[in-house]
Amino acid sequence: MMQSLTNHVVVPVADEEDARATATVLDQYQFDRVTVVHIIEKGEGVPDKLALEQAESRAADAFDMFQEAIPEAEDEITYSRDVVSAIINTAEELEASSIAFRPRGGNRLVQFLSGDKALRLITESDRPVIALREEKR
User: Fold this and answer.
1) Cα dihedral 7, 12, 16, 18 sign
2) What pLDDT, in 10s, does the model give residues 87-105?
3) Domain named UspA: which ranges (predicted)?
4) Domains along the chain?
5) In this structure, are residues 65 and 20 in contact, taking their beta carbons and an 8 Å threshold?
6) Which residues, 6 or more positions from 134, have their beta carbon under 8 angstroms from its beta carbon?
């Protein structure tokens, strides 16, 4: 039986601006169900990047911005030190048909030093990963 790539799409967002840009691009395509995901980097004995309340507020703001373009989108917060694994695990837990993301650019040195999360997402995921194009201005 054939599966639809867009039956249930998990879409990670980093902040309000990323959420706005990602939702604007995604809204130009057909999909059945969308869950927007924000990963709060936390745990494993390492100091948090942001206070928990501030991180959760940032997630809520991102969800609000995303849902301005796609009101029916569900939202999910995940807490993990490893952002890529968290996205993949969340997609698995939600039984998503695919993961869609908007590459966040940056120069090659930054990508190399950060471990190129986009490449990891594409190569480590057990389901299709859709790279959305940049927003047209």
Assistant:
1) negative
2) 999 999 999 999 999 887 6
3) 7-133
4) 9-131 (3.40.50.620)
5) yes
6) 25, 102, 103
| % helix, strand, coil for the chain, step of 5 | 40, 20, 40
Q: Is 63 exposed, middle or buried (0-12, 13-18, 19+ CB in 10 A)?
A: buried
Task: Provide the whole-model pTM.
Answer: 0.86
Cβ-count burial 43-53 (b if 16+ within 10 Å, e if not): eeeeeeeeeee
The span from the CA of 24 to the CA of 107, in Å, is 24
